[in-house]
């Protein structure tokens, strides 16, 4: 591996924006490739969650996520808009995902307008899922995206427009190099080392906690503890088809809180599981099977024995 201090090395943060289903997670997986090395649980800025790290010989791109960006319906008006703009201003480049197979809609325009507010960051438009449509449709979408860029960002428009297919690995590497051009000259921010179990489990726990609190933060402010029991490779799988079994217990203090987490007929817990699984797969760059259980540990916040058991 070349020295991270080599001349010309660039490192920094990028966020993938875009409405739900635009292909952000799949693209994150494709960019990150297989294993991700994470040795520190906390990114430099605690307002972001790391989704994955792209290590290359000449640059290191840290893909982060920003709460509130993708879900306009949960935004609390201007204050949260400001927060999103504020948080986004800490990344070096923004990728804005627009699927090739769907017309640009109000959700896309809403996010585009938010990105326009951020100010100085380059916004790279990414036309995703190009494998789902024919060439002409990709061309038409590129033209529509160009027009959107000029509408929301002024004459200069988007910094670049890159068509990609994460599924067919079309232009994924080109996109990584386009991003790298906007990163500052800097040594690598995270070591390209071995994955150690402990920080990996911390990150996984954080992603599950975040998914479990989504939408119920007011009802369950500090009443959730997440314990990752084990992360083990499933036996008998080939190297290019690995699966990790991730076993997790989620502790709440009261049965009423357990009911909130689980939701009607288990619907909410299934959603939590799916969201957490996507995030963890993007982080680890490999498929996982998430075995998630909710348990009541009475008054764990006040009980030192429980706290020790829960890893505090
Ligand atoms: N054919 C094809 N399908 C894709 C591609 N990228 C994503 N998809 C599919 O599109 C759907 C949504 O992709 P995700 O990556 O989950 O989208 P997302 O933007 O992360 O969605 P949210 O998590 O809801 O915000 C999934 O069913 C993917 O399999 C692609 O390049 N080609």
Automatic annotation (TrEMBL):
Residues 65-68 are annotated as: G3. The keyword Zinc-finger does not apply. Residues 10-185 form the Era-type G domain. One of its GO terms (molecular function) is GTP binding. It is a peripheral membrane protein. Residues 18-25 are annotated as: G1. InterPro entries: G_ERA_dom, GTP-bd, GTPase_Era-like, KH_dom-like_a/b, KH_dom_type_2, KH_sf_prok-type, P-loop_NTPase, Small_GTP-bd. It is found in: Cytoplasm; Cell membrane. Pfam families: KH_2, MMR_HSR1. PROSITE patterns: G_ERA, KH_TYPE_2. Residues 128-131 are annotated as: G4. GO terms for cellular component: cytosol; plasma membrane. Belongs to the TRAFAC class TrmE-Era-EngA-EngB-Septin-like GTPase superfamily. Era GTPase family. This is GTPase Era.
